Amino acid sequence: MILGVVVFIHELGHFVMARRAGVFVEEFALGMGPRLIGFKGKPRKLKDDNTDRGRLVWHSSPAEDGQKPEEEATQFSLRLFPIGGFCKMRGQDESDGGEPGALNGKKIWQRALVMAGGSLFNFIAAFVLFFVLVLLTGYIVAEVHILGEDTPAYHAGLQEGDRITHIDGRRVALFENFSTQLNFSGGEPVDVRFIRDGVQHDVSITPMQVDESYRLGFVPVRYLGLLSHESAYSTRVGFWGTFTTSVDMIFFNMRMPFTLLARFITGQSMPAGASVMGPIGMAGEVTAIYHQVIAYGILDTFLTMLFFAALLNAALGVMNLLPIPAMDGARLVFLGIEGIRRKPVPPEREGMVHMVGFVVLILLAVFIAYRDIVRLL
Q: What's the CA gap between 252 and 260, in Å, rounded?
């Protein structure tokens, strides 16, 4: 269900930006395969693209030659298989942009906004969800609150109040980023940069292993959210801290899926609990976590599912902007080439690139789905 909502937000972004650009959306669908149910939207007047001067409009206006404009309605449908969705626009894969409401008849910048609209909506949704989560539950930073004795941090000379900013040259604003980088180290020494009294220091520390993860041996500082109970940490989150932390969480969760995928492809070891999985694996993981947290109450379950929704929005948004054939990012690359050449790439060549990319993506999806099913069984 969560993945379906995330896909809906993505396709809604394409739909809204297409309507603003005067592009006719032939079908807005959730899921793939045979249509289960569907209905027609309100008929809309389509404007001749030859009269379009690049204005952003919520709906198309009549043709300027005085003739009665064509009226058509978008088909909204729900399809059998709950994986993915699509927003089919007129002229999206055709060379003829002369029909009213055709995407290929629009300006390059308009088409770019339409292609990027899905990811833009995913990023907005991720930010709003992370903002709400941080405001309600708080956040943890990689700052030493209590330093354990006889620990790597203690022997390296860290003190209470030191704030760690980088691990092996990577910025770690949040404790989650910090822990992930430590786990990536596999127990090897890491270069730690921290701030003490406004002065920057660098030190090399070998993490200690605790169960299946790696630690430096200190209790971090936690900022309390509106739903957090009073504890030894008395600092409450503020608006600016909530805002910046939400942005940090978006960028962290945008990078992480592809960091794990790169380690998977190159054969590097995965941190404990991390793996590459597709929709089947994610559904199984979310279901398992749901059954675990439901015992703690409805509120904890709701917040956990909210976190997964935010994470998936960030990941899906950036994934679709990658320059992979058949993805929105590849279409943006072709639009950039068109802008430089001042003429579009022949549609048959672009279509061939997208077709090859689509086949590769399907094969990769089948392979990951097979691994997910084996893991679940």
A: 12
For 48-54, which contacts have Cβ atoms below 8 Å and span 24 or more sequence positions? 48/100, 49/22, 49/97, 49/98, 49/99, 49/100, 49/101, 49/102, 49/105, 49/106, 50/98, 50/105, 52/22, 52/105, 52/106, 52/107, 54/106, 54/107, 54/109, 54/110
Residue spans of the domains in the chain: they are 130-274
Q: Which fold has domain 130-274?
A: Pdz3 Domain (2.30.42)
Helix axes 239-266 and 298-319, enclosed angle (nearest 10): 60
Overall size of the chain counted in residues? 377
- pTM for the full predicted model: 0.77
Residue 21 is classified by DSSP as B
pLDDT in tens, 54-93: 333 334 344 444 444 456 788 899 888 777 788 888 887 6
Residue 33 pLDDT exceeds 80 = yes
Residues 14 and 25: their CA atoms lie apart, in Å, by 9
pLDDT tens for 193-218 read 999 999 999 999 999 988 878 899 99
DSSP H helices, 267-297, are: 279-293
Q: What is the pLDDT of residues 264-317, one digit of tens each?
A: 677 666 665 555 555 555 666 666 776 677 777 788 888 888 888 898 899 889
